[in-house]
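Table S2 (continued). Query chain:
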Amino acid sequence: MRIAVGVAAATVSAMIAVPTANAGTTACAPRTVSTVTSGLGVLENLEFDGRGGLLVSGGALAGDGALRRVASDGTVGTVLDDVTGPGGIVVDGATTYLNVGNTAASGLNNTPDGTIDTIDLDTGERRTVATGIVMPNGLGVLPDGSLLTSRDIGAVGLSRAAGDGGEATVLRTDLGSVNGIEVDGDTVYTVTTFEAVNRLHVLAATDLTGPVRSIDLPGPGLLQAPDDLTLGPDGALYIALNLAGAILRVDPQTGESCRVAEGIPFVSSVAFGNGPGWDPDTIYTTGFDGTVRAAHPGTAQPADE
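Corresponding output:
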């Protein structure tokens, strides 16, 4: 997501009263938040490389951005420099897929200068595999190897490109300001960002233009701005509420939800730990404030009598 950062996240959170599921359950127990590292510009997305590193994409208030690798001890290295508008990241073995050109200017001007690039984690080789995309934001790799990306400003919608290269085509524009994408087998999840009532959409990967099951997310949508999402080990979706500075847990079967972490300024992306040095039960986050954080599992509180 690209927005102007001009509202204090804590202030927005204080303005919102959001109903939650039973907070006495372990799943909804409040998590404690700590900092992994900071000072990384405006962070957009994250993905574990499975080799002990956390890849983060981010830009700067002026100039190009980069793809960086964060170690579990907080040290930071650079994978790729001089990237214009780095967005969604997906890691598939030794291959990292990266959205490029995720800029508000491209979205507002309808400029198809976005691409999906790959970076070989073994050799560092970079290659462009999809072109002609306007503001590629969220990213997913489908079971057939094709690539799905989202646009949340301007003519919002989902686009698809062949995994072996070529120009992307717009699939549908009827879902609202779609942003984060999560692919789980034959199921695709995506959330909207700039709607009065934001929604979690559930689609079939084999019929992306077909029927959609939608779950309304709680609270005033424009004051929360859902961004990225990830599927947890418990089968629930965990959604970054950017303006609210919180993580929302949603059961995709029942639609029940609860906030599991708060106080994460302008949180833009979430993922459970994966690989050496990273706790698989902890949710790691990026934020527009340039900070990588860890939301550690909470302890269930007894239900009220």
